[in-house]
UniProtKB/TrEMBL annotation:
PANTHER family: DYSTROPHIN-1, E3 UBIQUITIN-PROTEIN LIGASE KCMF1. It is found in: Cytoplasm. The keyword Magnesium does not apply. Keywords: Calcium, Cytoplasm, Cytoskeleton. This is Dystrophin. InterPro entries: KCMF1/Dystrophin, Spectrin/alpha-actinin, Spectrin_repeat.
Length: 209
């Protein structure tokens, strides 16, 4: 083993250092705010591609580690120290990048799950309110038609029961929406606010009928 590491070591070190710098640069972009589901999906794809790329670089990283260990056994200590310091610096970046990628993917997946549930709840509420709206706009029967009046009264009572049953769902949607909004990009947060306001206005309208 020569006192200097082989050419392959130098090339691998240079290649991995460049890759780490490029990857860190990509991760410096604000990836983790809540926004449109499709955009988050695309961002997650990019992060997962970086994770795959990290795995592809693993052999080179292992080679650097093994080479430095070999040098420690055979080369003079001052030379060893130089390359050991160089490797430790790269190793620090490598570990940080690796854990950052895992955390970022998890965070994005959490955001996506929350947003999907929130949007599904909103759709369910909107569908129910649309059906109620149709019912409320039906023409009331002429006075004297007792059977139809009785049926309408029963439907009204059911509606009141539904409102009481569904109110907690609306509360939950409002709470969930506020949490998502606090972690969302500005423009998306604004749209979310509008969506919630319209939902609550529609709900109040139904409750006042």
């Amino acid at each position: 083993f020569d006192t200097l590491p082989p050419m392959r070591y130098q090339e691998t070190m240079s290649s991995i250092r460049t890759w780490i710098q490029q990857s860190e640069s990509k991760l410096s972009v604000p990836y983790l705010s809540v926004t449109e589901y499709e955009i988050m999906e695309e961002r997650l794809g990019k992060l997962q591609a970086l994770q795959s790329s990290l795995k592809e670089q693993q052999n080179g990283f292992n080679y650097l580690s093994d080479t430095v260990k070999e040098m420690a056994k055979k080369a003079p200590s001052e030379i060893c120290q130089k390359y050991l310091s160089e490797f430790e610096e790269i190793e620090g970046h490598w570990k940080k990048l690796s854990s950052q990628l895992v955390e970022s993917c998890q965070k994005l997946e959490e955001h996506m799950n929350k947003l999907r549930k929130f949007q599904n709840h909103i759709k369910t509420l909107q569908k129910w309110m649309a059906e109620v709206d149709v019912f409320l706009k039906e023409e009331w029967p002429a006075l004297g038609d007792a059977e139809i009046l009785k049926k309408q009264l029963k439907q009204c009572r059911l509606l009141v029961g539904d409102i009481q049953t569904i109110q907690p769902s609306l509360n939950s949607v409002n709470e969930g929406g506020q949490k998502i909004k606090s972690e969302a990009e500005l423009e998306f947060a604004s749209r979310l606010e509008t969506e919630l306001r319209e939902l609550n206005t529609q709900w109040d309208h139904i409750c006042r009928q």
